[in-house]
Amino acid sequence: MPGHTHSSAARAHRSRLALALVLVATFFVVELVAGLLTGSLALLSDAGHMLTDVVGIGMALAAIQVAASGWAHPRRSFGLYRLEVLAALANAVLLLGVAGWVLVEAARRVADPPEVAAVPMLAVATVGLGVNLVAFVLLHRGAQESLNIRGAYLEVLADALNSVGAILAALVLLLTGWPYADPLFAGLIALFIVPRAWRLGREAGRIILQAAPPHAPPHEVAARLARVDQVSDVHDVHVWTLTSGMEVLTAHLVVADDAETHAVLDRAREVLAREYGIEHATVQIEPESHEGCEEVTW
């Protein structure tokens, strides 16, 4: 059953998120202290991303828990699944905010580069990369199934890349003493993060605005339903995403007065599930002689 499958996936996601949260939160404190002591913007940038990881993974974990519990209430007929999407949107905003701060600080440091302790910077960045890779593996599978977890996954990925940048900056400092390596690598990583955060935010915005999923445009779905045996017309087709992997549809199908309505309904639902992955569909069957069902114009 779809509901049971989603619940099982949610439990697996919760355990992986909880473990990733403990790892990232612990190392955030270590990296923040190290960044302040060494004066490295790359480490402070990585610590900033670690903080967004902590907040993002924490929100993702909370959203899954709350959505699974449903907080039963007669006014919440769809439960609280949409909270996962709100968490993903918040993650995107956090990522953009941190990237903006790093770019501003990098520009300031290029004008007046401070002295940076390269050896401890290299050691901390290397350990940080290891922590991020473990979290990356923990979240990889869930990122394919949940937009919410994809937000946390992208933050961890960005953080891992930031750790790589910090390692490279430390190596350049050790080998050449070039003072611009630290702000340069920090700025490059920030630029890398921006488009990915933007795409995450755009996808969350699409769901919040109840736009149709890319794989199921309403006009195409309507045309396909119109080809179902005994269907003469299709109208009032609405398709939207409740949360990742949960598409919803409503549609009106017009059939002949003597049509086998049960068979039409079964075929329509089979088409929606097989070709579009839509398993939650409300399909209204209308005989041609029926009057009074007018299309909504908004």
From TrEMBL:
The keyword Transcription regulation does not apply. It comes from the Bacteria. It is a multi-pass membrane protein. GO terms for cellular component: plasma membrane. SUPFAM superfamilies: Cation efflux protein cytoplasmic domain-like, Cation efflux protein transmembrane domain-like. Its main location: membrane. Keywords: Ion transport, Membrane, Transmembrane, Transmembrane helix, Transport. Residues 219-288 form the Cation efflux protein cytoplasmic domain. It is found in: Membrane. Belongs to the cation diffusion facilitator (CDF) transporter (TC 2.A.4) family. SLC30A subfamily. This is Cation transporter. It comes from Egibacter rhizosphaerae.
